[in-house]
């Protein structure tokens, strides 16, 4: 069976009888704007996801932007890390055109989104016919001209990227508890 079909089977929640499918070890690419040693939430979530995948026997590769002082390639707790040189940056968000060819040959591609340039990942998944998983971490809230550009990107290529995910996923409860209304 072709690897991507095996991977799509792995994304299923089970058969009609409730038995889970075991596609065997998969080669999984995880893409994130930031990654340790940078201290930030999205990169840390990506690291913990990748580490757990590696612990379960999968081949986990993280693709992120190069950082001064960090090696271009290393293996951390079973996770292969590829730090790519960005063409440009918007804050912490790198534009990584190398993703378009570096993501070939993976059974599953997991994008930690949103970030400016992350849409390249959706295109690479489509071109390589790999199933795409997207974790949408938070909205980017900007003001002024940067805010207008962000909203334009989110409503165009951002929507296309999200719609290209192989399986829709949603949170079933709020991530952050709601604050009780203050007494007036």
Structure characterization notes:
The longest helix has 20 residues, at 144-163. Strand 7 (108-113), helix 4 and strand 8 (132-136) form a beta-alpha-beta unit. The strands form two sheets. Strands 3-4-2-1-7-8 form a six-stranded mixed beta sheet, sandwiched between helices. Strands 5-6 form a two-stranded antiparallel ribbon. The protein has helices at residues 3-11, 41-55, 99-102, 119-128, 144-163; strands at residues 27-31, 59-65, 73-76, 79-84, 88-90, 93-95, 108-113, 132-136. By secondary structure, it is of the alpha/beta class. The protein has one domain (25-163): Glycogen Phosphorylase B (Rossmann fold). Residues 12-18 have low confidence and may be disordered. The protein is globular, with a radius of gyration of 17 Å. It starts with a helix and ends in a 21-residue tail after the last helix. Helix 4 packs parallel to helix 5. It has five helices and eight strands; from the N terminus they run H-E-H-E-E-E-E-E-H-E-H-E-H.
